[in-house]
Fold:
Amino acid sequence: MQIIQLILFSFCIAICYYAFSISAIGITAALDTRTLINMEVNSHLIHILKNFVAIGIAAMIPALLIYKYELGRKWICLSLMVIFSMMLHGNVNEMPLSPYGVVRFIEQTLINGDLGAVGVFLEILILPIIWIVVLNKITEFKIPKTSSEEVNQL
Structure:
């Protein structure tokens, strides 16, 4: 029963991550920052950086939910969430729950995609992992306690 709960929780979080990342990609595509920056820059690099920030913010919410509710099995849940999300991204114009969507997503972004598509692939794959590692480090960090004698000596 716990495995079924884990799979259902991962799938629900993947749907949220899919919706957040699709809207983040759409918002960054609609924003034109070249008019704000009056210099000649590589437009692919600017687009990848905008996607990195937007998908990073979109990946924070599912990573936080996984870290809060599935602490013991966070890596399994995160892996399932990323795989389900890739399946949904690959099935944009196909049947939504087709498992071939993962292969289609990898094929369209990593293998046949341009620099921006490869960046989106890596951001969707890596940014939730980075957020889980950051949340681990935040909870491991402890402020050292100082005694009142040390404070009085200063």
